[in-house]
Recover the amino acids of this structure.
């Protein structure tokens, strides 16, 4: 599939029929990765399309390629670019980056004063975010809106989140603050310098959080590998 054969645009009412396909792929992709995401219903995704708060990617033959949507929290003080998903047969085409760029720009258009944040378990998404100007942050810098955190209840890692008093989990938090931020070139360079560390940190978190039992020796070995 050629780059120019994929169209990335704001979703509209004509895309609602794809909502079930999108949510099914979100769920199956999360299961395949062994990670969790907050589940969304087809009705919820369709509503985002009708609001003009979603971005969709399609081929010139109208085959579904990818999707992402905007959520707002704390009365618009924060917005999140959520649910990024790409159809398996179109992965590694560079379309995820195009979708993230368009949903980021759409968020800035609709919510110019809002902080934009995201939670991800993927190094690839962290890389894309860093190229847009996002910075890794602690969970305390995200929204305290209870509705947002309630959305995590359907995630397979929810027990981990609650056991850490919502201060840590499998996901890495990233934030773009329109009032106080580095330039994308700076955040990209910083990520490239620290990418190996982030990769090892993600593996270490997966080991610690998923380890239900184990000796001190095994934990020490994991620490050395980190």
């Amino acid at each position: 599939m050629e780059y120019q054969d994929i169209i990335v645009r704001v979703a509209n009412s004509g895309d609602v029929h794809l909502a079930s396909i999108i949510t099914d792929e979100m769920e199956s992709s999360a299961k395949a990765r062994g990670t969790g995401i907050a589940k969304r219903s087809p009705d919820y995704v369709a509503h985002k399309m009708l609001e003009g708060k979603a971005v969709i990617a399609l081929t010139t033959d109208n085959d579904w390629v990818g999707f992402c949507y905007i959520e707002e929290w704390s009365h618009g003080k924060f917005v999140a670019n959520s649910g990024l998903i790409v159809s398996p047969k179109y992965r590694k085409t560079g379309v995820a980056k195009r979708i993230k760029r368009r949903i980021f720009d759409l968020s800035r258009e609709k919510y110019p004063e809002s902080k934009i944040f995201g939670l991800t378990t993927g190094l690839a998404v962290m890389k894309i975010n860093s190229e847009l100007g996002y910075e890794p942050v602690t969970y305390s810098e995200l929204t305290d809106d209870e509705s947002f955190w309630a959305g995590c209840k359907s995630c397979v890692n929810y027990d981990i989140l609650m056991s850490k008093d919502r201060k840590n989990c499998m996901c890495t938090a990233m934030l773009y603050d329109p009032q106080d931020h580095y330039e994308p070139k700076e955040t990209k360079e910083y990520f490239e310098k620290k990418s190996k560390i982030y990769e090892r940190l993600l593996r270490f978190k997966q080991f610690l959080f998923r380890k239900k039992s184990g000796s001190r020796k095994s934990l020490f070995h994991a620490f050395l590998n980190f």
In short: The chain has one domain: 3-225. Residues 3-225 form a domain with the Aminopeptidase fold (CATH 3.40.630.30). Confidence is low (pLDDT under 50) at residues 212-226. The CA atoms of residues 53 and 106 lie 8 Å apart.
